[in-house]
Design a protein that fits this description.
With about 130 residues, the protein is mainly α. The protein is built from six helices and two strands; from the N terminus they run αααβααβα. The chain has helices spanning about 5, 20-35, 50-60, 75-80, 85-90, 120-134, and strands at about 70, 115. Strands 1-2 form a two-stranded parallel ribbon. Helix 2 (about 20-35) runs parallel beside helix 3. The longest helix has 20 residues, at about 20-35. It is globular and about 45 Å long. The two termini are about 20 Å apart.
Amino acid sequence: MDGDNIRHGLIRDLGFTEADRIENIRRVAEVARLMVDAGLIVIVSFISPYREEREAVRDKFDRGDFFEIFIDTPLDICEQRDVKGLYAKARAGALKNFTGIDSPYEPPLNPDVHITTKGQSPEAAVEKICAAIF
């Protein structure tokens, strides 16, 4: 599940306020849980800025059915990789409540997998994730 794709339908009525972000994650978690209950392996690629919400999502799943994977990328690298120009819009004030710019991000304290993208290849990151969940 990709955040950009989900924004076209399931969460199109939500913006980037704190309340909207919380509701965004709640809806996505409910859909993911339904998919897991149906026997699917689900990868949810979202910025989930608040620890409390991530813990609430974890609580919706049976033990072993949820893995928090922290893709730890410095803000300057995120901005360099931003093909949509969202960080530039946020820095210019055209996009409000943008994570890392004018909205906080609370890094996980104990993620199941911690991937540091600076100095680690995508292939090595995938190997680390697969080793942790399979």
